[in-house]
Amino acid sequence: MPEDGQALPPFKPGQFLTFTLGIPVPGGQQKIIRCYSLSDAPRPDYYRISVKRVPAPPGSDLPPGRSSSFLHNQVAVGDVLSVRAPSGHFHIDRSDAPLVLIGGGIGITPMLSMLNWCLNEQPGREVWLFYGVRNGRELVMQSQLATLAEKHPNFQLRFCLSDPLPVDLAEENFQINGRVDVPLLRMQLPLKPYHYYICGPTPMMESLVPALAEWGVPDSHIHFEAFGPASIKRQSAAAVAAPVDEATASGSEIIVSFAKSGKQIAWRQAAGSLLEFAEANGIMVDSGCRAGGCGTCQTRINLGEVAYRQAPDFDPEAGTCLLCVCTPKTSVTLEA
Ligand SMILES: Cc1cc2nc3c(=O)[nH]c(=O)nc-3n(C[C@H](O)[C@H](O)[C@H](O)COP(=O)(O)OP(=O)(O)OC[C@H]3O[C@@H](n4cnc5c(N)ncnc54)[C@H](O)[C@@H]3O)c2cc1C
Ligand code: FES
């Protein structure tokens, strides 16, 4: 809820908030930035997010997810959090186009916002929701979604369990025993010019998005967001793919200069993104989504050019770049 009691900035269903959190650590606080999708229809008095507790990878000594653990374990009603206004290009708009929403795991959150908005604002619009998880224990808002499907004849709900538990099979509380993939969509959906909105784990996105394009769904009807780095290839990717580095092609070295840190380092393609390269060399840059969506890592380019593998969701200001999703095209000097 807004601390000052004023109306909150509106948002489009599917957008997210960027939080700057002060995580307690021995001797002080660690500042971390994380993005969370708004998970309910827009309203002026409060925002809702829904956060999955992220455990440490199985068998590792690593700590569990910092932000999600902090929000689950420490943040209490009445605490004040620092939040940037809603942003993101992954959203639906008012139109007659029939919709297919596909949420995998915690990727259901933007779909909940889209669905709730649509059923309130455009109850005549056809909406399908395919919600993919491993088993019934992982479903959130299961009964609320089922109630909505009973109430709204234009809303078709499909819970898709890839590995149902015996209790799921006994209770038959789901519709599909399997993953959300194109063969399933072909079987379920009538032939119509649907717009597809997809958010889910990286493997699901990396297979589903190209498969939809191969099935013949136009790029302009495929909308997606990943909650982390994912390399999703669009059919039109060639149009925005990074051109071959001239310097690399001619065998000369690309030098990345970090003006504020006073470091000059030879670029290695294996470094990943410029953000990862900076971090690996001890240069700390604020980051949030690490996927080109929030603008937190926007950094001024003093000299040189960078390239993006695919057009980022967030439009960087002229003369800047999003370090998390770009690589140097020539030697560059960055204000970092
Ligand atoms: C646009 C967008 C929207 C999002 N919306 C949602 C949402 O609606 N709901 C939601 O729950 N999440 C959402 N996310 C994901 C969210 O932003 C966080 O990434 C997520 O909560 C994990 O953050 P964390 O700080 O808890 O984990 P982190 O501290 O970042 O850790 C992540 C994982 O890495 C492991 N780890 C810790 N240290 C290391 C190390 N040194 N080396 C390797 N691994 C390590 C941790 O154990 C954990 O498994 C969204 C992300 C984006 C980009
Ligand atoms: S960290 Fe979000 S755009 Fe780079």
Give a summary of the structure in a few sentences.
It comes from Candidatus Accumulibacter proximus. With 336 residues, this protein is α/β, with parallel strands linked by helices.
Summarize the structure in words.
- By secondary structure, the chain is of the alpha/beta class.
- The chain has three domains: about 15-85, Translation factors (Elongation Factor Tu (Ef-tu), domain 3, Beta Barrel); about 100-235, Nucleotide-binding domain of ferredoxin-NADP reductase (FNR) module (Rossmann fold, 3-Layer(aba) Sandwich), CATH 3.40.50.80; about 245-335, Ubiquitin-like (UB roll).
- About 20% of the residues lie in helices and about 25% in strands.
- It contains nine helices and 16 strands.
- It has helices spanning about 65-75, 110-120, 140-150, 165-170, 180-190, 200-215, 235-240, 245-250, 275-280, and strands at about 15-25, 30-35, 80-85, 100-105, 125-135, 155-160, 175, 195-200, 220-225, 255-260, 265, 300-305, 305-310, 320, 325-330, 330-335.
- The chain has a six-stranded parallel sheet with strand order 7-6-5-4-8-9, with helices on both faces. A five-stranded mixed sheet has the order 11-10-16-12-14, with no helix packed on it. It has a three-stranded antiparallel sheet with strand order 2-1-3.
- The chain is globular.
- Residues about 235-245 have low confidence and may be disordered.
- FE2/S2 (inorganic) cluster binds next to loops.
- Flavin-adenine dinucleotide (FAD) binds near residues 34, 51, 66, 67 and 109.
